[in-house]
């Protein structure tokens, strides 16, 4: 699908699913383009449009380069968070003198939000550089929003693990499975956020180093790119910090599992020690030998019961005194 965005003469928005790209269109958006749409855009901008296989490349030389005066930049954008399957999808930006062309095979939320904002405020797409930095701003803002959500989720998980009531820390198997799954999914989301932030940082660094940005008339653009770069770096560092917190929570959860297992094994251990002497006595006097010295004792039964009770209560009191149980 091909869409074009740009202000008209009276300041309103020109948007079209076009067979012909309007001359005033500053942003040309290609979503899962057909061969005919790619050919139309290439004729319009007189540049090649990146293919899906080229967008999948991860080498900087394949994602960030300049050709015939046009800047080709591919960034990985966070996608699928609301569906519960966070991933990243590549979006290619082709910046020419008067147009910005985006090529994508998914619709991340910040791109959709930016398109909606452009419909309400055509000034966001008054020219190609403005459209580019505003869209990058939307992408970075989206990463910041997701990091805030992750931070709240980590706080909730931490409060559950380190509950002030000790009994509340004992986690049944079903809740424990859900807790570990939640921690794992949080870590996956943080990995995708950090990957997207690093990809954005690389793109901003490349764009900031180009000759076009250093022209005298692009002072505002340089300032905006510097601000975006600082924001992206901060988000990447914050994602790393949250990732360390998630790792700590995972270690704490596994520690609780170990404590519960040790407590269970401790219970079985002292129970075995307590009941071992009575079992030994019962085993001895339960033997059926013909010559048994105590067999004719009048009080033999009572004495054996007393021995078994004493041999059981003795280790129990000893363990209790030592604080082992």
User: What is the share of helical residues?
Assistant: 55-70%
> What is the overall pLDDT average?
81
Tell me the distance between the termini: 70 Å
- Give the total of beta strands: 7
Major pleated sheet: 7 strands, mixed
Radius of gyration: 35 Å
Number of helices: 9
Q: Beta fraction of the residues?
A: 5-15%
Question: Which stretches of 5+ consecutive residues score pLDDT under 50?
Answer: 9-13
Q: From the helix content, strand content and strand pairing, which structural class follows?
A: alpha+beta
- Series of secondary-structure elements, N-terminal to C-terminal: EEEHHHEEEEHHHHHH
The main sheet orders its strands as: 2-1-3-7-6-5-4
Quick one: overall form?
A: rod-shaped
How does this structure look, described?
- This protein is α+β, with helices and mostly antiparallel strands.
- Helix content is 60%, strand content 13%.
- The protein has nine helices and seven strands.
- The chain has helices at residues 35-45, 52-55, 60-63, 109-120, 128-161, 166-169, 173-208, 219-284, 300-322, and strands spanning 2-7, 13-16, 27-31, 64-67, 70-79, 87-95, 100-104.
- α5 (128-161) packs antiparallel against α7 (173-208) and α5 packs parallel to α8 (219-284).
- The longest helix has 66 residues, at 219-284.
- Mean pLDDT is 81; it is low at 9-13.
Tell me the layout of helices and strands.
Elements: E1 2-7, E2 13-16, E3 27-31, H1 35-45, H2 52-55, H3 60-63, E4 64-67, E5 70-79, E6 87-95, E7 100-104, H4 109-120, H5 128-161, H6 166-169, H7 173-208, H8 219-284, H9 300-322
Parallel strand pairs: 3-7
Antiparallel strand pairs: 1-2, 1-3, 4-5, 5-6, 6-7
Helix pairs in contact: 4-5, 5-7, 5-8, 7-8, 8-9
């Amino acid at each position: 699908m091909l869409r074009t965005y740009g202000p008209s003469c009276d300041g309103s928005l020109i948007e079209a699913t076009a067979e012909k790209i309007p001359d005033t269109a500053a942003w040309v958006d290609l979503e899962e383009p057909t061969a005919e749409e790619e050919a139309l855009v290439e004729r319009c901008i007189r540049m090649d449009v990146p293919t899906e296989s080229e967008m999948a490349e991860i080498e900087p030389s394949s994602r960030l380069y300049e050709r015939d005066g046009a800047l080709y930049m591919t960034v990985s954008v966070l996608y699928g968070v609301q569906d519960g399957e966070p991933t990243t999808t590549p979006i290619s930006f082709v910046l020419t003198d008067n147009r910005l062309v985006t090529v994508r095979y998914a619709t991340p939320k910040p791109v959709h939000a930016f398109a909606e904002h452009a419909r309400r405020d055509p000034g966001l797409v008054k020219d190609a550089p403005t459209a580019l930095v505003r869209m990058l701003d939307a992408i970075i803002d989206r990463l910041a929003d997701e990091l805030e959500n992750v931070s709240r989720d980590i706080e909730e998980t931490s409060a559950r693990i380190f509950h002030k009531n000790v009994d509340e820390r004992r986690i049944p198997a079903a809740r424990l499975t859900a807790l570990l799954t939640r921690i794992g999914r949080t870590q996956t989301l943080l990995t995708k956020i950090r990957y997207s932030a690093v990809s954005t940082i690389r793109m901003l660094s490349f764009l900031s180093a180009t000759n076009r940005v250093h022209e005298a008339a692009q002072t505002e653009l340089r300032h905006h790119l510097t601000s975006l770069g600082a924001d992206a770096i901060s988000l990447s560092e914050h994602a790393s910090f949250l990732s360390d917190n998630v790792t700590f929570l995972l270690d704490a959860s596994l520690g609780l599992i170990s404590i519960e297992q040790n407590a269970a094994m401790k219970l079985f251990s002292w129970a075995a020690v307590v009941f071992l002497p009575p079992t030994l006595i019962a085993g001895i006097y339960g033997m059926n030998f013909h010559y048994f010295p105590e067999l004719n004792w009048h009080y033999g039964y009572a004495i054996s019961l007393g021995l078994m009770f004493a041999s059981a209560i003795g280790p129990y009191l000893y363990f209790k005194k030592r604080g082992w149980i």
